[in-house]
Amino acid sequence: MPVQPTAQPALYRSRASLVSRKAPRPGRRRLRVAIVAPSLAILGGQGVQAHILIEHLRADGFQVDLLPINPVFPPALSGLRQVPYLRTVLNEAIYIPRLSAVRRADVVHVFSASYWSFLLAPVPALIAARLAGRPVVLHYHSGEADDHLTHWGPLVHPWLRLVDEIVVPSVYLQEVFAKHGYPSRVIRNALDVSAFPYRERIALQPRLLSVRNLEQMYGVDQTLRAFAYVKAKWPHATLTIAGYGSEERRLRDLAATLRLDGVRFVGRVEPAKLPRLYDEADIFLNSSTIDNQPVSILEALACGLPIVSTPIGDIPAMLRHGHAGILVPPGDPEAMAAAVDTLLTHPGRVRAVTRAGIDEVERYNWMNVRDDWTTLYHAMATSAARLAVAAPVPVANAAACTTPRNPGMESTDRG
Predict the structure, then answer these.
(1) Using an 8 Å Cβ cutoff, are 156 and 118 in contact?
(2) 193-364 CATH fold
């Protein structure tokens, strides 16, 4: 069983204590880490996680360089961001040359999703790190990992052999990688808990909230259908939908077809404005059909929101049905509406799940994942120095390698 950090009772915790800094360990040199990830121009879990990691690592004494996979286009060409295919060509033309900066790093940390995103962003970074002789960690986040590893064969497996460590945020993804023969270590997503004020909700109002991008895998259409059932019993109910994406037009049309009033689409919400959105709501809904460890669920837990969600990816481990939230079957909006009704009519249950949720989210606080990252970085840098990996490795040979360059490192399951 993966080692789980011990969660301390947190209902009345001091928020100041959650952001206190540990002193750097004596004798450790200051490492430079290159993080290859989306910038916050792309609002999503990876960008948010990269931002949190960079902010806290710098505060802890690391030198950190962000190499964004979505670099800013020159002003004269900025309009091409709206042109499919051309934007990809231009993006790669700017992004790939900038990867030469990995030569300055002690460790290269590459965030990864699946499918074409994997080929366009992580793969060039893995090649650059390998050519520069730098140890590299692949930080894989996608809930589509099983399908990706099963069906993309030569477009994924040779590149995975270039990495020194695979890190995933959940035991769910660790098991997926193990199924395909890859050891990985679990380091949970981090949350800046102090940024999300906790509010204890004693008497709930039917103010519902969804914070997921508007893509098919997140099932926001099912959230709308569940809201229609809620509305039938609670006419004054409201639903706020935060997020943007390719499904927006279809979802707006669905809300009109269902003749739903009280639905508010607020679009893209910057991270600094999210806490207020959570504070204004009383119940959080998630209907995803493909997922891993949603940061929005962590944020909702930190704010004291009771949660109704589908049991996808790592969500069952996060909420533990009936403990820190209520789980309902995918594609069953009636069940979701019934769970909402249960929360609205049973305040004692609300108190129990939100207090359990605030203890659960403590496990994702930066101070509880910090040592996992810093220990890994130092071990990788030390191992690379010991093995004197300095000469570039030809890509043809690198792709054929089947063992990491630091065989002395043991992959440790963390959670």
Answers:
(1) yes
(2) Rossmann fold (3.40.50)
Q: Residue 353 — pLDDT band, cuts 50, 70, 90? A: very high
Return the pLDDT at 392.
53
Q: Residue 3 contacts by C-beta under 8 Å, 6 or more apart in sequence? A: 413, 414, 415
| pLDDT of 315 above 80 | yes
Residue 74 DSSP SS3 = coil
Structure tokens at 307: 């949660």
- Exposed/middle/buried for residue 269 (C-beta within 10 Å: 0-12, 13-18, 19+): middle
Q: What's the DSSP call for residue 322?
A: H
Residue 182 structure tokens:
């890859």
Kindly report the length of the chain.
415
pLDDT at 401 over 80: no
Quote the CATH superfamily of domain 15-190+366-400.
Glycogen Phosphorylase B; (3.40.50.2000)
Sheet with 185-186, strands from edge to edge, namely: 63-68, 32-37, 107-112, 136-140, 165-168, 185-186
C-alpha to C-alpha distance for 204 and 347, rounded to whole angstroms: 7
Q: pLDDT exceeding 90 applies to what percent of the chain?
A: 80
Number of Cβ within 10 Å of residue 187's Cβ equals: 23
Question: So what's the pLDDT on residue 107?
Answer: 97
Backbone angles phi, psi at 104, to 5 degrees: -85, -10
CA distance 199 to 11: 10
Decide: 138 and 122 in contact? Cβ < 8 Å. Answer: yes
**Across 26-124, where does the E strand assignment appear?**
32-37, 63-68, 107-112
Decide if 131 contacts 392 (C-beta within 8 A).
yes
What integer is the mean pLDDT of 128-139?
97
Question: DSSP 3-state assignment of 109?
Answer: strand
CB 319 within 8 A of CB 307: yes
The domain limits of the chain are: 15-190+366-400, 193-364
Q: Would the CATH topology of 15-190+366-400 be identical to that of 193-364?
A: yes
Tokens linked to 10: 């947190």
Find the range with the poorest average confidence among 61-65, 198-202, 381-385, 407-411. 407-411
Least Cα distance to 145 among 112, 123, 120, 122 occurs for 112
State the pLDDT confidence band at 414, using cuts at 50, 70 and 90.
very low
- What stretches of 19-114 show up as alpha helix (H) in DSSP? 45-59, 86-98
- Kindly provide the b/e burial profile for residues 99-109, where b requires at least 16 CB atoms within 10 angstroms of the residue's own CB: bebbeebbbbb
Write down the pLDDT at residue 385.
81
